[in-house]
Structure formats: structure tokens, C-alpha cells
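User: New here, any thoughts?
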Amino acid sequence: MNNNERAIDVLQELNQFVNDRIEGYERAAKNTHDPAHQSYYKDLMNQSRQFSNEINSSISSLGGTTQNNTTAKGKIFRGWMDVKSTVTGNDEEALIKSNITGEEWAQKAYNDALDHRTELPQNVVQLVEKQKQASMATCERLRQMEKAAD
């Protein structure tokens, strides 16, 4: 497998998670009773769509097929799907906790992708690092929301 093929594989796997993230925040936006939270979750949905587009653009530039699936692939994706399935529509704190867990899974997915940094073009490494930083900031904000919901 050459570096382009490996990079495409890494990015396709990462993008499956990003697509699951879109679904997770879509669900959170529908289930929350807090208008401010709903607005934030919709922003995160849009951010995730932008992330997916950026990753797909990188995949295309490397000669690969874009990834639009939300199929659970590997432990990361199954874990996120399990978390999403336990969300209840009437418990704000459980919803926030689920989103925190999802972002923790996201960071694992970004770290897994970055474990292959030597096989990735520098611009792709920078893209993945930028998205990971955004995920970390989201996780921090969600933890603040959780404290406020206590």
C-alpha cells in the first residue's frame, strides 16, 4: 500500500466518525429542551458537515473515493453509536454527557489518524490537528454545560 492509499484509508475511516458526529448532534438538537443548547448543537452539526467536506476534499485530492457513510467501523464508531442509543430525550444532563463521550471518541479518532502522520501529506496533518483542536474546545464547553446543568 503506498502512502496515498494509506492516507485515503486513514481519512475515510476518520470521516465515518465525523459523519456519525453530524448524526449525534442532529439527534441532540432534536432532543434538547434548552433553546441555547439546541442552537449550539446545530452549530456543531454545521461544523461537523464542514469537517466532513474538508476531509472528503483531501480524500479526492489524493485520488480516493469520498466517504459519506455513517457505518460504525471499528471500536470507536461502535462506541459512539452505543452512547447515542442510550440518550434520553428528557434528561438534559444525560444528553450533554452523551455528547461529551462522543467528543472523547472524536479525539481518539483524530489521535488514531495522527498516529499515521508520517504517511499523511503535511496539509492533511494540519487539517486533522485543526479539527482535533476544535473537538477539544467543544468537549471543554460541553463540560461547562454539564456543570451548569447539575
